[in-house]
Design brief:
Layout lengths: L2 H86 L4 E5 L4 E4 L1 H7 L21 H15 L1 E11 L3 E14 L4 E10 L1 H62 L4 H44 L5 E3 L1 H11 L1 H6 L3 E4 L5 E3 L1 H17 L8 E9 L2 E8 L6 H4 L19 H11 L3 E7 L3 E9 L7
Parallel strand pairs: 7-9
Antiparallel strand pairs: 1-2, 1-5, 3-4, 4-5, 6-8, 9-10, 10-12, 11-12
Length: about 450
């Protein structure tokens, strides 16, 4: 083989090797290009996702801006509402910061303390207008006591304000913590109770005087009723003696001869006119006797102290019923007593109370039907309620408000002087209780007595 041919073959091989190398490089370049294309596709997808996220963020930002604007408008409205509310509060009202500087005050505050808004804003609350507060007490209240309680009610403060003089004020304070920074605000409402305190002082003095007058009146009533009993007993005694003397005179006149002209007149005097006068004396003295006894009972009741103790009401009611046994049997009245809860009270006065109620029920039963009296009791909330119910003649609505008045009688023909129900009312009031009456003419009457469970005011 010639040298020239070998050279050409060698060149050809070299070209083939170079071609194969270029083919490999081309293949690698193609793979790199594919990888770059894939990377470009991923970048495009990431860019697309970023664009979508950016659009979402823009929409969120727009929504946040709209919400912020709405909140600012709402905050402005709330601020305006608050300002209007503060402006229309009829009592002095002030808002302080944590250092007790004034942030805002109501118009009423300015009117009360004779100051302007400009004279108050930023000033220490207890130094407004040369105000002579009880400063140590007030500072302790607002700086020490209030933070621990968050609210103070009815704190009484005396001060001497130069433009309005000496005043007694009632403060109600509330602490409000707001925001992430725990910003402290103090809301204070102020009530001028100067006149109330003065009135209360006068009222207490009047109550003392009234109690003294009441004691004096009870003493006078007791002495008067007690002293009137002596001449009344004399009247009753001499009236009986007069009756005996009249009978003796009548017997003597039968033994002597008297002209007919005198005999008729003497007979009229002895048998008609004098007995009639004596009857009126007896009737009036008996009525006066009952009245004096009733007034004496009222007087004693007023002076009696209530001795509170546990009272077995079943035992007490049995005793009350026993005292009326004769009338109950005579009038064929049925008395039904349920199991009664015990209470705390004065046993003697409670016996007197229920005796009066039972006596009234027996007095006003309806003769056209069998009499029935039901006595029951139960605990309701803070009270023990006892009910005395009858099926008697009942009370007309026009008389129900007058039942407990002194000397008021439903039926003037019935015995009694109209003091029993007033005594009942006084006994209930001495026990800090309440009494109610429910009645319907022709159907009967129910008295409801409510006594505090603990013997104190149940309210």
């Amino acid at each position: 083989m010639s040298e020239q041919l070998l050279k050409e073959i060698s060149n050809l091989r070299s070209k083939i090797a170079k071609f194969e190398e270029n083919e490999i490089n081309l293949k690698n370049t193609e793979e790199e290009l594919n990888a770059l294309n894939q990377q470009l596709d991923a970048s495009n997808q990431q860019l697309l996702a970023s664009e979508q996220q950016l659009r979402a963020l823009n929409e969120q930002l727009k929504a946040n801006e709209e919400e912020l604007i709405a909140k600012e408008e709402y905050a402005q409205q709330v601020h305006e509402y608050a300002e209007n509310i503060i402006a229309t509060i009829r009592t002095p009202f002030v808002i302080l910061d944590k250092k007790l500087h004034v942030l805002t005050v109501s118009h009423s505050f300015c009117d009360t303390y004779k100051v302007t808004q400009e004279e108050t804003i930023g000033k220490l609350f207890y130094k407004l207008g040369n105000n002579q507060w009880n400063i140590p007490s007030l500072k302790k209240l607002l700086k020490d006591i209030l933070p621990g309680k968050s609210e103070i009610k009815d704190f009484e403060v005396n001060h001497n304000f130069e433009k309005i003089g000496y005043k007694t004020m009632l403060l109600n304070a509330r602490e409000v913590i707001r925001g992430e920074n725990k910003h402290r605000l103090i809301f204070i409402s102020i009530e001028d109770i100067t006149l109330r305190q003065q009135t209360l002082k006068k009222l207490n003095q009047l109550n003392i005087e009234l109690e003294n007058r009441k004691n004096e009146l009870q003493q006078v009533l007791y002495i008067t009723t007690h002293d009137l009993r002596s001449p009344l007993v004399n009247i009753q005694g001499f009236n009986k003696e007069l009756g005996a003397s009249l009978e003796e005179l009548n017997n003597l006149l039968e033994e002597i001869e008297i002209p007919n002209t005198y005999k008729k007149r003497i007979s009229e005097l002895i048998e008609e006119e004098i007995p009639e006068s004596m009857h009126f004396i007896t009737s009036s003295s008996n009525k006066m006797d009952a009245l004096l006894k009733g007034l004496l009972s009222l007087s004693r009741l007023g002076r009696q102290k209530v001795v509170f103790k546990d009272v077995d009401m079943n035992e007490l009611m049995t005793s009350v019923i026993d005292n009326f046994e004769y009338e109950i049997i005579k009038n064929k009245v049925e008395v039904h007593i349920s199991d009664l809860p015990q209470c705390i009270g004065d046993e003697f006065q409670l016996n007197q109370l229920f005796s009066n109620l039972l006596g009234n029920a027996l007095k006003f039963f309806d003769s056209d039907r069998p009499g029935i009296i039901n006595i029951s009791g139960e605990k309701i909330n803070n009270y023990i309620k006892y009910k005395v119910q009858d099926n008697g003649i009942g009370i007309h609505p026009d008389h129900q408000d007058k039942v407990f008045e002194l000397f008021h009688k439903l039926d003037p023909k019935k015995p009694g002087i109209g003091l029993g129900m007033n005594i009942v009312k006084q006994i209930v009031e001495k026990h800090k209780g309440k009494i109610e009456v429910e009645s319907e003419p022709g159907a009967g009457t129910k008295f409801i007595i409510s006594l505090p469970i603990d013997g104190k005011d149940g309210n």
